[in-house]
Amino acid sequence: MIPRQAHLAAVERLLKRNPVVALLGARQVGKSTLAREVARRFSGPHDFLDLEAPESLRALSEPASYLSEQKGLVVLDEVQRRPELFPVLRVLADRPGSTRFLVLGSASPELLRQSSESLAGRIAFHHLPPLSLGEVGANRQRRLWLRGGFPRSFTAHADADSAAWRRDFVRTFLERDLPQLGVRVPGATLARFWAMLAHVHGQVLNWSELGRSMGVSDTTIRHYVDLLAQSFVVRLLPPWHENLSKRQVKSPKVYVSDSGIVHSLLDIDTYAGLQRHPKCGASFEGHCLEQVVQRLGARRDQCFFWATQSGAELDLLVLRDGSRRGFEVKYSDAPTLTPSMRHALEDLRLDSLEVLYPGSHTYSLHERVRAVPIARLLLDVDP
What we know:
- This protein is an alpha/beta fold.
- It has two domains: 5-127, Rossmann fold; 138-380, Arc Repressor Mutant, subunit A (Orthogonal Bundle).
- Helix content is 44%, strand content 19%.
- It is built from 18 helices and 14 strands.
- The protein has helices at residues 5-17, 31-41, 54-59, 63-68, 85-93, 109-116, 133-136, 141-147, 151-154, 159-180, 187-199, 207-214, 218-230, 259-265, 271-276, 280-296, 339-348, 377-380, and strands spanning 20-24, 46-50, 73-77, 100-105, 123-127, 203-204, 234-237, 253-256, 303-307, 313-320, 323-329, 352-357, 363-366, 369-373.
- The strands form three sheets. It has a six-stranded mixed beta sheet with strand order 9-10-11-12-14-13. Strands 2-3-4-1-5 form a five-stranded parallel beta sheet.
- The two termini are 25 Å apart.
- 39% of the residues are buried.
């Protein structure tokens, strides 16, 4: 098991302040493993209920009665299967005592909204992403890029085993997991659409073009994208707008959240195959951006991209604590300062701009611009 100390500490902090904590993330990302570690370290009794297991379902045949008798920490895994538990948790959360509830779900707060409205003011959310460079180590950056950060994919014995696991994950996610979340779109349709998104990974979304390719309306395409984004397998990066005279891009960029899943959707199984693929640069961009976001601990509402109709652009703009940090990704041996970077520095008034690339040395390109190897992200980029 790869330790996930930062997330472990974050969940423990939330449990001290809130009667209910929701640990959310994609299927197979390691939520259950992390929750069991939280329970093991908890100073008091604990109970772990897997809502996919028959014995747990039997115990919860009378949920109010059973849960009211529990003390310490109660973990409810796959809580989206039993939305009727949320009103029960509301009552128990207001009850005097020290019982804490850790609920695990494979759906985002948006998908759980109707079920959790009654827990407003009582519940805190924590998102568990795939493994990061800080968790696996810089010396395994290439493996992380190829296989992605799902624990079973990353730790597989060989690349072929990892690729087989990811193909099974995609199929199971589309055929079983999404329907269990209430998604009524046929799995074959979403499979085709998800593969299509992998081919526009890192590009500004053209809703109309995707709609024509799928033979559906723009509204339907937006619905498909929302389903995948709310299930944590797609990231929509919104555009940032300044009061400039320049015309700026106003549609979001789309990324498949995990690089290993991108490669599975593109039928890439080996590092050699990745290097030869025309989407290699786009894959590297998405991989780097995910690592930066995790390194900085940035929330989704703090992350943007910026682009103008004239061609100036910035891959990632992070607005946090009053600072403006820019990140550009170049799949190049020795990136140089470009006119686009100069425009971003001036127009966005950046405090710093890091250019991430697959090299080995950090060097200055400008007073506020550095080229930083992705493998040195943990050493050369402050959180």
